[in-house]
């Protein structure tokens, strides 16, 4: 789905993004929880959802995407409260990650300027940055972290 003004969002695009970002996350979380709760209570269990810095802000032409990422943040918080102390639930919320999928967006100079004007650190994330955040939240070092969102956004949401 391309970025669209709220008034121009097609119902089919709305349904697709809700299905992808909310329904799929809920169903995957539910399946993981069921499996994690089957055995004994021993061991550190963690669910880490991939959200977005857009789950903490608004943006023009991104109402549907922002809405679904805000919902994912809400699911994470509710699940964390419900499942503590047996399962920790958190999100990683990156800003734009430099990938083959996002590179074409940055060919548009206006969009590129808009993004970089919002990242005080002045660069995009790498997929390694996202992986490192997930690894941290899955590790024993994060044993007391649940219901939170680790924003790796170069300062985007600090403003």
From TrEMBL:
<dbReference type="GO" id="GO:0016491">
    <property type="term" value="F:oxidoreductase activity"/>
</dbReference>
<protein>
    <submittedName>
        <fullName>Short chain dehydrogenase</fullName>
    </submittedName>
</protein>
<keyword id="KW-0560">Oxidoreductase</keyword>
<dbReference type="InterPro" id="IPR036291">
    <property type="entry name" value="NAD(P)-bd_dom_sf"/>
</dbReference>
<dbReference type="InterPro" id="IPR002347">
    <property type="entry name" value="SDR_fam"/>
</dbReference>
<comment type="similarity">
    <text>Belongs to the short-chain dehydrogenases/reductases (SDR) family.</text>
</comment>
<dbReference type="Pfam" id="PF13561">
    <property type="entry name" value="adh_short_C2"/>
</dbReference>
<dbReference type="InterPro" id="IPR020904">
    <property type="entry name" value="Sc_DH/Rdtase_CS"/>
</dbReference>
